[in-house]
Design brief:
binds zinc ion, carbonic anhydrase, globular, Carbonic Anhydrase II, 247 residues, alpha+beta
């Protein structure tokens, strides 16, 4: 039960629906004096942002033989809500769905975006990414990261980009969102243990980063950056973590 409640609390602070947030959550941002270099000093609960050894994002270089199954993604298409949470746009689904990994089954919690992308692959930088956050029954988190280059307009995200909530706390309803259509046909992925990329930088997060990027148009990227000019944490040391490639 302990880790279950821990998971809920983490989501309340860093990611998900606010059900048990502290009364005065410390303000953080992507620029000094409350930016990534200062996150660890802003509040006791953020200490891992400074002292953690398995932090995200990383520059991904596969270093361990992987024998990984295909991702089992079960996201039913349906209505969604897009919320401006002050740091990014956060998407929740009316019928959330789930995914299954060798470590278990994880319910979909929310998807949000970063510009530029946080994860790099072999030093390659991408202008945009989506993080799909999941949680298992014990409260453990697993995130899928999708990377995007600038190119063809992204049709799945078009209704979101064309009607974004523009102020913190605002929400916009979408009639239909099909998360699976955001995924590339070839679903090779890197996997490793890491952290939340926002305070409190909690570790024990299982990351799956899709190797093949999708696209969004220049206009879609610019529209997002009008609201969030830069919302990516810098690359963190990999240290001696195993990074596997599978699919
Ligand atoms: Zn994220």
């Amino acid at each position: 039960m302990r880790s279950y409640y821990l998971g809920i609390t983490l989501l309340a602070i860093g990611l998900g629906p606010v059900t048990a947030a502290p009364s005065n959550p410390p303000h953080w941002s992507y620029t000094s004096p409350s930016g990534p270099d200062e996150w660890g000093d802003l509040h006791d609960t953020h200490a891992l942002c400074n002292t953690g050894t398995q932090q995200s994002p990383i520059n991904i270089k596969a270093n361990t033989q992987g024998d990984l199954p295909t991702l089992d993604l079960q996201y039913p298409a349906g209505p969604a809500v897009v919320k401006h949470n002050g740091h990014t746009l956060e998407v929740t689904l009316k019928t959330a769905g789930y995914m299954t990994l060798p470590s278990g089954t994880y319910d979909f919690v929310q998807m949000h975006f970063h510009a530029p992308a946080e994860m790099q692959i072999e030093g390659h930088k991408y202008p945009f990414s989506a993080h799909l956050v999941h949680r298992d029954a014990a409260g453990n988190l697993a995130v899928i990261a999708l990377l995007f280059n600038v190119g063809e307009k992204n049709k799945t995200l078009a209704p979101l980009f064309s009607n974004m909530p523009r102020h913190e706390g605002d929400s916009v309803a979408l009639n239909n969102l099909d998360l699976k259509s955001l995924f590339p046909a070839k679903q090779d992925y890197f996997t490793f243990m890491g952290s939340l990329t926002t305070p409190p930088c909690t570790e024990g997060v299982r990351w799956q980063v899709l190797k093949v990027p999708g696209t969004i148009s220049k206009k879609q990227l610019n529209d997002f950056k009008q609201l969030f000019p830069m919302n990516a944490r810098p690359i963190q040391p990999t240290n001696d973590r195993p990074v596997k490639l599978g699919g």
